[in-house]
Specification:
CATH superfamily of one domain in chain B: Metal-dependent hydrolases
Largest interface: A-B, 79 and 61 residues
Strand content of chain A: 25-35%
Number of strands of chain B: 18
Largest sheet of chain B: 8 strands, mixed
Number of domains of chain A: 3
Structural class of chain B: alpha/beta
Number of helices of chain A: 27
Strand order of the largest sheet of chain A: 21-20-19-18-26-25-24-23-22
Helix content of chain B: 25-40%
Radius of gyration of chain A: 35 Å
Oligomer: heterodimer
Chain lengths: 1028, 447
């Protein structure tokens, strides 16, 4: 059977070999040729691990006939003697948009009014950014200039797909030859393309990263439902082109944009949810979190867009270049090497490079920085082919593969190696002579009895010539192509002589005519005399030691720290790092326990393995290894500050405010563990923060609760097994009161409408929940599952008391309303946040059992806060409402202790009550008071040591401890500042040397985390959206 | 003469010289009666308080005498016997703290109620070069925010315009008065120039905040240079051929009668601004903002240029900056003898004005002495504004603008203003917020 199969295959192949057929008629006689090309005596890189010396490559009809060391060369073959030359399989770029239409510019809606629905007409899906039906091969058009650009740097084939949309459609494997498109498309659909970026879609949703993630997830669920629902007859669901195409796309490998270490991990998480083994297009900064990247167990497409050196001549300007950027400049070229050392399969892409001509230069740089040549080659040839299941056609020089190869004068990773010819499907592009004529030497120019000395030579950069006129040496302009030399010189100070001559290779001389300034012609000879010294000083190989690279720090930001030395550069041992102390004994502190009516003076608190185990005077020093004793005489120990309302440490948008409900979005998807504000707030005693969606819509997104574990990754920052929360909002932001004249059409525009948003969504959630429950417990096995709806799932969780509401609120009427809605649907509102008029309905809030999380003294920033009073927290507390003071602001979160103290000034809370506003009370409203919020035996050691009474403006956090580990220490901070200073100075010295070497430099441009407030809309300035 | 430890308040019903014992909660009601009472008290002795003079000195137990609108005497009260007949009011303030009135500089307080409501915004005018625009006339003595600021001891504000390159002229206003004519302490004290920024901060969706070279920088500088050259030349004209109200408004800064406030934060912008002011012979230049002023203290000191410093409760500009650099900047300026005061320009600056003293308090945690911190919101501010002969310290001959606090005025938990005078007149220490507080306390019957 197998034999038969092979013989049929052979038969088919043999036929195709003989007859080259085309459906196209020719105008005149066809030019078809079946010439055989033989490339002999070459060093042939058959594939990334096989090199043949003195070998032969035989090519016909765009395919490889044979390759080997001792092959018989067909008599009719056109033979290229490639002695001393190299043949490589052409490179493959599987992340490219070659031959695709130009991307349309993205229009912001902020100035044109909202667009809630898709602009695409027809039976497509609801969102414009889902372009699953796009098929790149149907759009593909040759682009000679772009093809040449890629061929010159080694590429022979690419997978192309427009870089536009969240689902981008199918990519086509195309060759870079210059014939008809029909000859270029090798495979029409080889991979599906995805991204977390809506691209040119003008539709409002999604406007944030978290919204993009939610949309992609929902699309997977919709497509699953669609496939099931339409599998039977009659069809039970709508017809939907986008979902239909999406399902077909799932048969192909999935390539998704990460473009950044953290986004890589985000897409990896989505892949896990839907069992998709993504091939992730990386950002080049994967080395900064290599352990997490490795643990994703995915394949990567890696750019080599190493940053240009910064111009640091101006010391003040240079101050604005962050340590992150400086270190990335230094370490970016290590990225491929780091991936290799961690056994992460990857291929290279030329994408992200400003100048494509830098591609090989940067690959070579990556090799200098530790990447093996073998892996580099694999990443350019075999891996990209393997990733798209095309390693039977391209990526190596094997029999029957497509004849895609290039010829270089030296091994391609050598510094001065040059690509001489690129062959795509047997079609050559010639960039340089295979055997260039070497005319270097000392010559005598003789014409009409006059002689001059001329010297042709090569300096480090290029070929040059020099003429000696009356003992003065002058440089001589010349060109030598097609055996003809032309040059001009000035024998005196006025006249110019121009000459053109033909080369005689045997005599090594030129003969020709020159024209004098007066127009007269006369003949000349240029005769070889002697050779010039051609020995070039070899540049010393760059060794690791010479590179003198700094370490990766965690996080990759100022105030990050390198892992301990003994664990090596590439190997993470975070666990060891984290558990620096197994026990901490804090002695003689004034302890604010939040457990009892008085402070414990001169008490000791003993922490073991992250937990508080003893609170007593005079505890003996621990005898454990890795134990620390802190003398806290004169200092105050409090529970860590918990910020109930924060928007730090989030990436690309805090609001998916494009629809009245965005319950499906999760702030936990977009945590940015590198945000400097985490460290700054640790220095203010904050140990825990709830990261909330903004207040742009009535039903916001799901919250994330984090501990400020500076240095850890996003997942490790999350508070373990925390209850789920969700942000709701009322009032001016929801009804877009301060969004300008364009934003007047999204429902709702009044507080009346806000109530009905809730009424509507909870009614639907209830019905959805019922349908789901019926299905899951039902006996009708043939029934199709209801469509999984991430938005209604979240709302159903509220109804089932598995998710809890934090509601942005100001005015008493709306506060009252939401409590009524909750009562109607049978749940309780967990927390009102801001709640500046809470004091007006404190009795009702008490009765409902809702908590309040408010500002100490903010007011007068908009109409709905004109009745705010700084006595709010006091009245609410005295009325028995569980009350907290929150920040909603990266700056204020650094001094929440001071904000709490304002309730002593305004309304005379006791100091113990005041401190609870930022510790125990928020812990209660976040349902974590069983673990944190007070200093009690058995609780987690999230504590802060203060230099003074923590409610005094003069107090500073001296040490901030989370899980029994010190995350902020004022002495350590001084050392970190010193590290930043010396590390900056070291890299700046390198940059200055780089500039002196003549490297290109870029002017400084710094990037910082944007500060988010409740009202922040991506793409819209805060002044356009009002305040908070 | 009998003094008691309890508060003793003047009361229209009590005879001059007699001291009547009363309780704290009556304070608000009683001080209110000052304004509307038939009889006014013109000779008041504040006795026994810890006097923080504002210039660094402290008198542990002081006697401060107010006569009409001026301070008649400030002296150590130890061993002094007060002659009850000499005053119409004697107030025993025990061991409470007495301070000069605090001064809020560079702020839109009084020019805006709620920032998001356009109709209440009166601090910015159309156009780029507006030296003739005056905040004085937009200053609303019945502004809703002002009463909540007074209650924390801030009794003066520099009503400051915003926007454009030259925003206009500020004026120094007392926080009490029937109208702006009544409230003004110094009209048109200076012109505010938002100095062009060499590096601009912008943000976008993908990258967050980015800073890059300001493309308009050279144009803006050229524009300003031309305007200043023209204005300077105009100021020298013997007979004006055609009157130009913008140039007219510039005259006081060329003849040294008004300040030129150069708003600049970045160190290079500050240097350029200083050079600019020298080029046009500006006698009184002030750097406003000065976030990076600590980097060029010697330059500032050499040129005798004071700084109205950016709010202390602010984030560092760069990730790599020391996390406490902004907290520490006042100390760094003090250490290098640069004259500075604190101001609160920025987010919600008008309502934030009431936290001025606490910003100064934070500076104490990072190196200033408490008296230096006090000076940074009183005496230093007065000196920079050019009103130090009238306000800023508790000194004989100055206006009797005085506050009395229960405890340390710089610390949130002890700041509690129980008595305040502006130019000898008692200040109402209640506002809408205290009224709502009482209203709802009563509703719920809580204490």
């Amino acid at each position: 059977m197998k034999k038969l199969y092979f013989s049929i295959l052979f038969l088919i192949f043999s036929i195709s070999k003989i007859v080259s057929q085309s459906t196209f008629p020719t105008n005149g006689a066809p030019f078809n040729t079946h010439s055989i090309y033989a490339f002999t005596n070459a060093t042939i890189i058959v594939d990334f691990e096989t090199t043949l010396k003195n070998a032969v490559l035989i090519v016909q009809n765009g395919k490889i006939l044979n390759v080997g060391e001792k092959l018989e060369i067909p008599k009719n073959a056109i033979v290229y003697d490639l002695k001393g030359k190299f043949i490589y399989p052409s490179f493959i770029d599987i992340y490219n948009d070659y031959g695709m239409p130009e991307a349309k510019p993205h229009m912001r809606n902020g100035f044109t009014g909202p667009q809630p629905e898709s602009n695409v007409k027809g039976a497509y899906g609801w969102n414009q950014a889902i372009k699953a039906d796009l098929e790149a091969h149907k759009l593909f058009l040759h682009n000679k200039d772009k093809a040449e650009e890629l061929k010159k740097i080694g590429f022979g084939a690419v997978v192309t797909c427009p870089k536009d949309g969240i689902v981008r459609g199918s990519g086509a494997l195309v060759l870079l030859n210059n014939t008809k498109e029909n000859e270029s498309i090798l495979t029409d659909k080889v991979a599906g393309y995805y991204a977390l970026n809506k691209g040119s879609s003008t539709q409002d949703y999604p406007s944030s990263l978290t919204g993009c993630i939610a949309l992609l997830r929902q699309t997977y669920y919709d497509a699953q439902w669609y496939a099931l629902a339409n599998s039977g007859i009659p069809t039970k669901a709508e017809y939907n082109i986008s979902l239909d195409a999406f399902n077909k796309l799932q048969l192909l490998p999935s390539i998704i944009d990460g473009n950044d270490k953290f986004n890589d991990l985000r897409v990896a998480k989505i892949g896990k949810e839907f069992n998709v083994k993504y091939i992730v297009k990386g950002g080049g900064n994967e080395y900064q979190r290599i352990n997490d990247i490795q643990n994703a167990f995915l394949k990567f497409i890696i750019p080599v867009n190493f940053p240009e050196a910064y111009d640091v001549e101006d010391p003040y300007d240079a101050e604005a270049i962050t340590l992150t950027d400086l270190k990335h400049w230094e370490l970016a070229p290590t990225n491929p090497a780091v991936l290799e050392k961690n056994y992460i399969p990857f291929c290279f892409t030329s994408n992200d490079l400003k100048n494509k001509s830098d591609f090989l230069k940067n690959i070579r740089k990556a090799i200098q920085y530790g990447l093996s040549e073998k892996t580099a080659l694999k990443a350019l040839t075999a891996n990209p082919a393997l990733f798209i299941n095309a390693y039977d056609k391209i990526g190596a020089l094997k029999k029957d593969f497509i004849a895609n190869f290039f010829i270089s004068n030296k091994a391609i990773f050598d510094d001065d190696s040059q690509i001489l010819q690129q062959w795509v499907k047997g079609e050559p592009s010639i960039y340089a002579d295979i055997n260039p004529i070497d005319i270097r030497g000392n010559y005598i120019l003789a014409s009409n009895n006059k002689t001059y000395k001329i010297k042709f030579f090569e300096d480090a950069i290029k070929s040059k010539a020099q003429i000696t006129i009356d003992t003065t040496k002058k440089s001589l302009n010349y060109s030598f192509t097609n055996n003809i030399i032309t040059f001009s010189f000035m024998p005196d100070t006025i006249d110019v002589v121009r000459a053109s001559g033909n080369y005689n290779a045997i005599q090594k001389s030129f003969e020709g005519n020159l024209q004098l300034a007066n127009g007269n012609w006369q003949s000349f000879t240029l005769t070889f005399e002697s050779i010039v010294d051609t020995t070039k000083k070899p540049t010393p190989p760059i060794t690791k030691k010479l590179l003198n690279l700094g370490k990766v720090i965690y996080p990759f930001n100022a105030f990050g720290q390198a892992l301990p030395e003994e664990n090596g550069f590439f190997k993470d041992s975070w666990n060891k790092f984290k558990n620096r102390y197994s026990a901490i004994l804090i002695k003689n502190a004034t302890v604010w326990t939040n457990d009892g009516d008085s402070l414990l003076k001169n008490y000791d608190v003993y922490i073991v393995e992250g937990k508080i185990v003893r609170i007593a005077p005079n505890i003996d020093a621990p005898k454990l290894a890795f134990a620390l004793t802190i003398d806290a005489k004169g200092k105050h120990l409090t529970p860590g500050i918990i910020d109930e309302h924060s928007h730090i440490a989030l990436t690309s948008g805090v609001n998916e405010g494009t629809q009245s409900s965005s319950a499906e979005v999760r702030m936990g998807d977009v945590i940015n563990p590198d945000d400097i504000n985490i460290y700054r707030q640790l220095a203010g005693g904050v140990t825990c923060a709830q990261l909330l969606h903004g207040s742009a819509n009535a039903i916001g997104g799901q919250s994330a609760l984090i501990k400020l574990r500076w240095g850890h990754n996003a997942e490790d920052m999350k508070y373990e097994k925390a209850d789920g929360f969700i942000k709701f909002a009322l009032g001016e932001n929801v009804k877009q009161s301060n969004w300008g004249d364009f934003n007047t059409i999204r429902f709702p525009q009044s507080r009346m409408g806000v109530e009905q948003v809730y009424n509507d969504f909870f009614t639907r959630a209830k019905e959805y929940d019922k349908a789901m429950t019926t299905f899951l417990t039902g006996k009708d096995k043939n029934k199709i599952a209801p469509r999984k709806d991430l938005e209604l799932d979240a709302l159903a969780e509220i109804l089932n008391k598995k998710r809890f509401i934090t509601c942005h609120s100001y005015v008493q009427s709306e506060i009252n309303m939401l409590m009524h809605i909750a009562d109607t649907f049978g749940f309780k509102v967990n927390t009102f946040t801001h709640i500046l008029e809470g004091y007006k309905v404190a009795d009702k809030m008490k009765a409902h059992g809702v908590s309040a999380s408010t500002f100490a003294d903010w007011w007068a920033y908009k109409n709905e806060v004109l009745d705010a009073i700084p006595y709010n927290a006091t009245i609410l507390t005295k009325m028995g409402v569980n009350t907290a003071i929150n920040s909603d602001d990266a700056e204020m979160a650094r001094r929440l202790n001071q904000e709490a103290a304002k309730s002593i000034k305004y309304g005379a809370l006791t100091e113990i009550e005041a401190l609870k506003l930022v510790t125990l009370n928020p812990a209660k409203m976040l349902h974590i008071d069983d673990k944190v919020g007070s200093i009690k035996v058995g609780k987690i050691a999230d504590v802060v040591l203060w230099t003074d009474n923590p409610l005094s403006v003069y107090a500073k956090a001296d040490k901030t401890i989370i899980d029994g580990q010190i995350y902020f220490d004022r002495d350590e901070d001084v050392k970190l500042q010193d590290y930043i200073k010396t590390e900056r100075a070291r890299i700046i010295a390198k940059l200055l040397a780089e500039k002196q070497k003549g490297s290109k430099t870029q002017k400084h441009q710094t990037k910082q985390q944007r500060l988010y407030h409740c009202n922040t809309i991506e793409g819209v300035g805060e002044e356009e959206t009002g305040h908070r | 003469m009998k003094t008691t430890k309890a508060y003793n308040f003047p009361n229209p019903l009590c005879q001059a010289g007699k001291v009547q014992k009363t309780v704290l909660c009556l304070l608000i009601v009683l001080t209110n009666t000052f304004l509307f009472a038939q009889k006014t008290y013109t000779h008041i002795a504040l006795f026994g308080g810890i006097a923080h003079i504002g210039n660094g000195k402290i008198i542990e137990s002081s006697l401060i005498v107010i006569k009409n609108n001026l301070i008649e005497a400030v002296m150590d009260a130890k061993g002094i016997k007060i002659n009850p007949q000499a005053y119409d009011t004697i107030i025993d303030i025990g061991s409470k703290h007495v301070y000069p009135a605090l001064i809020n500089t560079n702020n839109v307080l009084g020019l805006v109620d709620a920032e998001s409501i356009r109709a209440t915004r009166d601090f910015a005018e159309v156009g780029n070069i507006n030296p003739h625009i005056r905040t004085l006339i937009a200053y609303n003595t019945d502004n809703i925010v002002v009463p909540t600021v007074k209650t924390n001891g801030i009794l003066y504000t520099q009503a400051t315009p915003r926007g454009g390159l030259i925003s206009g002229s500020s004026s120094i206003m007392a926080l009490e008065g029937w109208n702006w004519e009544d409230a003004v302490l110094k009209a048109d004290d200076g012109i505010h120039l938002n100095f062009p920024k060499a590096v601009e901060k912008k943000w976008n969706d993908e990258e967050g905040v980015t800073s890059s070279a300001n493309k308009k920088y050279v144009d803006e500088l050229n524009y300003l240079n031309k305007f200043f050259a023209d204005a300077l030349s105009y100021s020298k004209e013997q007979t004006v051929t055609e009157k130009n109200i913008r140039f007219e408004a510039m005259k006081p800064i060329f003849n040294g009668k008004a300040n030129l406030y150069l708003h600049a934060d970045n160190v290079k912008d500050i240097i350029t601004a200083i050079n600019f002011s020298k080029k046009y012979n500006i006698a009184k230049a002030v750097i406003v903002g000065g976030k990076e002023s600590y980097k060029i203290t010697s330059e500032l000191k050499k040129n005798k240029i004071p700084v109205m410093l950016n709010r202390v409760n602010d984030l560092p500009d760069n990730n790599d900056d020391a996390i406490d650099i902004v907290f520490k900047t006042p100390y760094l300026l003090q250490k290098d003898s640069v004259l500075f005061c604190l101001q609160l320009e920025g987010d919600m600056e008008a309502p934030q004005s009431r936290n001025l003293a606490f910003n100064a308090g934070v500076a104490v945690a990072y190196g200033l002495t408490k008296e230096q911190a006090l000076a940074s919101i009183s005496y230093n501010a007065a000196k920079i504004l050019g009103v130090e002969k009238q306000i800023g310290t508790l000194e004989e001959g100055k206006m009797a603008s005085i506050i009395v606090s229960d405890g340390d005025v710089l610390d949130i938990k002890t700041n509690n203003i129980i008595l305040a005078y502006i130019a000898g007149k008692p200040v109402t220490l209640k506002n809408k917020q205290t009224e709502l507080y009482i209203k709802y306390k009563n509703k719920y019957g809580i204490k």
